[in-house]
Amino acid sequence: MWSKVLVLHGRIEEIVQVITAFLDAFGEPDLLGQCRWLQYQFGQSGILLARIQDNKELHLDFHENQETPKNFDWHLKLHCIEKSKFSLSSIKVLCLTSVGSLTKETVSSLISKFSHLESLEIVECKGLQSLRIDAGSKLRSLTVLDCPQLNDVYVFSYKLQTIQFRGWLPWFWIKCAPYLEDAMLDFREGPAHHPFSCENLLSLLLAVANVKILTLCGWLFKVPIPRWLPSAGVILGRGDFLLNNLKELWWIDNSMEKHKIEALASFMKLCPYLEKLFITIDPTSYCNPSKGHCRFWMEYSSRVASNTRLVNLRMVKMEGFTNPEDERLLAEYLLEKVVSTEPIIITAPKENGCSKNCTQKLVKIPHSKAKHQQRTQPSLTERNCI
Fold first, then answer.
1. What is the value of pTM for the model shown?
2. Least confident segment among 4-18, 92-106, 158-172
3. What does each C-alpha distance from 85 to 20, 31, 93, 184, 377 come to in angstroms?
4. Residue 46 parent element (H or E)
5. CA distances (Å), 327 to each of 197, 215, 332, in order?
6. What are the boundaries of each domain within the chain?
7. At what angle do helices 258-268 and 295-304 cross, to 10 degrees?
8. At 189, is the secondary structure helix, strand, or coil?
């Protein structure tokens, strides 16, 4: 009974009314056979696929069939003023896929009716250039993925706890989010269609300074040093720029050469209570063409980090490494200059077709043995496949 698909035809202006009736059907057992799937055809070739999951999650997937999507700006206001029906107020999670210039106003009108919306997901909206979200104290989670033309993002959500973004690095503002705990800022595709702004990046880093879980890309910290100079006074004037709450750091890079290891280590020192480190090597990730190094971050981290070594780091997971030598160099650098503990290292080796995770224990080597062991084997022991 739940797999039945309701097919309707109409105008784009009727989408809000149709979705409202679709949701109302769950309160009336005899209406629409309580169908959880809806296919609504509008205009000449537009299609909306709607699905309800767990009676609180609504998925809307649009297909406008435009050969060349028109660019558009989108301002979403999540302040529900009017009293909504029970069916609308029951929706906590809204997932939007492929909203375009033709449907953005209709979707905006629909969103304003969800009085208890807590999670919003925006995916693959081609043509979307600017996104502004005013959510007040409503939204708890925001996800924006794979919108290739997106240049500007502005988010105001006082109770926001989780934000996930994947795509080009846009101008990005997060305003007044004191409860933010988890931030995924996956900019592995590189800068968007505007000059790189150190000031904006610093503002974004300050906005996520209190999170517990953070995802970042290494290339952000390897931009040419002169670009940082106009912003240096701003960040150096803030002795409180430490990620004291951060427990998990997810780091994405296209390789792990020495200067990239130094960039990672410099940022880690700004996270004095870090417990877990996850490193993903993606060869397709953006690589800054500049040969500039991370001297600015190295100097800043050594200046403001009272603890020069991390004492709580207990686990490092490496994924995507194709060269065991890179794993060894990273492990030795962390032990020599970053950590004072002996964290477990988890890798996914590819030699001999092994796809299982392997654990390694990072241990200090007496100086007298270091040169010999550097030639014979990495400074890791207790390696076991799990």
1. 0.86
2. 4-18
3. 9, 16, 16, 34, 67
4. strand 46-53
5. 32, 20, 9
6. 1-159, 181-386
7. 30
8. coil
First to last CA, the chain: 43
User: For residue range 108-138, what is the model confidence (pLDDT) as tens digits?
Assistant: 999 988 988 999 999 999 999 999 999 988 8
- pLDDT per residue as tens digits for the range 306-347: 667 899 999 999 999 988 899 999 999 999 999 988 889 998
- Lay out the sheet containing 128-136: strands in order across: 72-77, 128-136, 152-157, 171-175
Rounded CA separation 148/192 (Å): 9
In whole angstroms, give the CA distance from residue 362 to residue 317.
12
How remote is the C-alpha of 150 from its chain's centroid?
15
* C-alpha separations of 173 from 86, 250, 284 in Å: 34, 21, 26
Which ranges of 25-129 does DSSP label H, i.e. alpha helix? 86-89, 104-111
- Helix (H) or strand (E) holding 53, with range, is strand 46-53
Closest CA to 148 of 130, 121, 128, 176: 128
- Identity at 107, one-letter amino acid code: V
In sequence order, what E strands does 225-323 have?
Answer: 248-253, 276-281, 315-319
Q: How many other C-beta atoms lie within 10 A of the C-beta of residue 97?
A: 17
Token duo for residue 131:
């996104």
Q: In whole angstroms, what is the distance from residue 347 CA to residue 319 CA?
A: 6
Q: What whole-number distance in Å separates Cα of residue 142 and Cα of residue 126?
A: 18
| Residue 385: both structure tokens together | 């496949």
Q: How many residues does the chain have?
A: 386
Answer for the pair 334, 265: CB distance below 8 angstroms, yes or no. yes
Instruction: Compute φ and ψ for 281, nearest 5 degrees.
Output: -100, 115
Q: Under 8 Å CB-to-CB from 16, ≥6 apart: which residues?
A: 106, 109, 110, 113
